[in-house]
Amino acid sequence: MTTLTLVAHALTPALRGLVLGGDAEPDAASVEVARDLKLSADAVYSGPEQAAVRTAEALGYDAIVAPALRDREYGDWSGRELEDLLAADPARVSAWLERPHTATPDGETENDVLARVADWLGDVAEQHDDRSSILAVVHPAVVRAIVLYGVDAPAESLRHVDVRPLAAVRLSHHSGNWSLVFVPSA
User: Fold this and answer.
1) Which partner from 9, 82, 100, 127 sits 20 to 30 angstroms from 93, CA to CA?
2) Are 102 and 140 contacting, i.e. CB atoms less than 8 angstroms apart?
């Protein structure tokens, strides 16, 4: 059985300010907290964002950067604060928030993200079918997408999954399926 531990990258000003997308540098204090986490793995991947790469480095790994693990593409709304978008176009933003099958202008839908991470999970399962322990440091939105895929939940369930910076979740792969793994607390 192969295991995959997902870690949400360190806190960034963009996460704190509810800024969509972008590639912000992680907060130094959050990176320091990551240094204290003890996670072992046979293979380590990260999303391409600076925060994901720097968090993996803080954990002691030179991660393989996987473009498929990137944050959701927000298109024309990238780099903008959610509150500013709501003030400028409340009907359009509210519709997007309520219907995950809706994309931002020139962006991805939640289903697009789910399909992208599902493809990556399939590739990882093929490459690591030898009882490997895998670690992936990614944007919190990618953790949510992978969890939804793992439990076969629809994109509408996205709002029910809260992922904080440096949060971790584990999945296992067995007989062609990914499943959530609950571990005893320390």
Assistant:
1) 9
2) no
Residues constituting the chain: 186
Place of tokens 């571990």: 183
Using CA atoms, how far residue 92 sits from 77, 84, 86, 96, 113, in Å, is 12, 13, 8, 6, 20
Cβ neighbors of 166 (< 8 A, separation 6 or more) are 7, 8, 9, 10, 11, 30, 33, 34, 37, 55
User: By three-state DSSP, how is residue 131 classified?
Assistant: coil
Assess whether pLDDT exceeds 70 at residue 21.
yes
**Confidence at residue 152, expressed as pLDDT on a 0 to 100 scale:** 93
Alpha helices in the chain (DSSP H): 13-16, 28-35, 50-58, 82-88, 90-98, 110-127, 140-150
In angstroms, what CA-CA distances link 57 with 26, 28, 81, 118? 12, 13, 28, 25
Separation of alpha carbons 95 and 33, rounded Å: 37
Cα gap 3→181, rounded to integer Å: 9
Q: Give the whole-number percent of the chain exceeding pLDDT 70.
A: 99
